[in-house]
Design brief:
CATH architecture of the largest domain in chain A: 3-Layer(aba) Sandwich
Distance between the termini of chain A: 21 Å
CATH topology of the largest domain in chain A: Molybdenum Cofactor Biosythetic Enzyme, Chain A
Radius of gyration of chain A: 22 Å
Structural class of chain A: alpha/beta
Domain MoaB/Mog (chains A, B): 15-175
Shape of chain A: elongated
Organism (chains A, B): Varunaivibrio sulfuroxidans
Order of helices and strands of chain A: HEHHEHEHEHHEEEEHEHEEHE
CATH superfamily of the largest domain in chain A: MoaB/Mog-like domain
InterPro entries (chains A, B): CinA, FLAD1_M, MoaB/Mog-like_dom_sf, MoaB/Mog_dom
Strand order of the largest sheet of chain A: 2-1-3-8-7-6
Protein name (chains A, B): Molybdenum cofactor synthesis domain-containing protein
Helix content of chain A: 25-40%
Oligomer: homodimer
Largest sheet of chain A: 6 strands, mixed
């Protein structure tokens, strides 16, 4: 990668805050980061940072306030359910210095779904900071919300994905970055020198080199990213020629 | 979770810094966090935070310096290969204000493995901050290193796991936290109130409630964590009785 491009990014940036002891304990594998990152790529927003933090109010408030100043958009996942360990909505309210209210529109959505089964615990899922806008939840009906540049999603991947899909096209992005990749059975040590020269010659794109271990041997995936499809194609062709000149196998799809 | 326990944790804490545009772009799914977290649990160290950051030197240096002050241990993954975009070792040297040197022990390990195929690009993998200690790499031979409380691992999971396993038992941990869990087909809204009372009655443990979406319907996994196996067993039994009182199914293993 060229450092200048990353030090002065043209596109709006985003930060994902994954709130959850279940991820930090190793019990649950996060599945939301990759989905969010790919969706943001589609609309020209760059995921610049992600953090995984515990269900501790002071840490959530501090992290939110750091990240919402540093990035165009902040997304949170986790901690908006009905139980005692779901403290995200309250922490977001504290970060914004707003009261936590039981939102009438959210109560209505829950009433329509739960009917007589709507109880105090479920009503907790209608609490959000004053002035928040609802994010629709077509899966399990308890809405997410956004306030300022912060978007608050559920942690369950199917629900998170539906919530993100509902707001994705309201985000204001920049140029859409694309990527193409090729894989080879050569190792990085063989091609590193020439790849660095190729990066110097193709400054409009970012060349990433990602080793992998497959069937007992190392290989590498070369990924070219940028906003200019022509420059990407040209760089991929140059990388492919370089790999073939070393008698390396070329696989179109990375493993 | 009880807030007091998390605000004043007894155990040493750790932070994982995942360095890699390939994770932030959504191309690669991180597989190191869960492995590290579970291994740290075994030795009484609590993974308190994780961050995913891009391959940008200034960001790596700043993040390292924040995290190594805030936590007992810091682990990094990614960016220690042979190519132009591998800048972790140099960033760690800058964070510690030490020169980056070609380490004689690392050169020897690479010479033994590569022989005549050792070139300038591969020698880059022997560079580390002055005063660093090597971390053995039984998979692909280019070592990791640690300096102060920072442990620098490769990003390829098989290599990262071997490096972590090599240093794991040198870490100084506290009480080992254990976890037991049960799953039910009840939803959080049904059991949230009673679960909060159970948490109040069992302050030595942390009760987590994690909804999941399976076969088209919501269910929940209840996880009890703590250092006292007796208190965990007692709490799990109380949760199970509570679920059964609501005619909920109980599954021993979480999905």
């Amino acid at each position: 990668m060229t450092k200048d491009k990353n030090d002065a990014p043209q596109n709006p940036t985003a930060c994902l805050i994954i709130i959850g002891n279940e991820v930090l304990s190793g019990r649950t594998q996060d599945a939301n980061l990759a989905y969010l990152a790919q969706g943001l790529n589609d609309v020209g927003v760059r995921l610049a940072e992600a953090r995984v933090i515990p269900d501790v109010e002071a840490i959530i408030v501090k992290t939110l306030n750091q990240c919402r100043k540093a990035h165009t958009y902040v997304f949170t996942t986790g901690g908006i359910g009905a139980t005692h360990d779901d403290i995200t909505a309250e922490a977001v309210a504290k970060a914004f210095g707003r009261p936590l209210l039981c939102d009438a529109r959210a109560v209505k959505a829950l009433e329509e779904h739960y009917g007589d089964r709507l109880n105090d615990a479920r009503l907790k899922m209608a609490e959000m900071p004053e002035g928040a806008e609802l994010i629709d939840n077509p899966v399990s009906h308890a809405p997410g919300f956004h306030i300022g540049n912060v978007y608050v999603f559920a942690g369950v991947p199917k629900i998170m994905q539906a919530m993100f899909d509902g707001v994705k096209h309201t985000l204001k992005g920049g140029a859409v970055w694309r990527a193409r990749s090729l894989s080879t059975d050569l190792t990085e040590g063989v091609i590193a020198g020439e790849m660095a020269l190729l990066q110097d010659d193709h400054k409009d794109v970012e060349i990433g080199s990602y080793p992998h271990f497959k069937d007992g041997r190392l290989g590498v995936a070369l990924v070219v990213r940028g906003a200019d499809a022509g420059a990407i194609d040209e760089t991929v062709a140059a990388l492919e020629a370089m790999v073939r000149a070393h008698d390396g196998a070329v696989f179109e799809d990375p493993p």
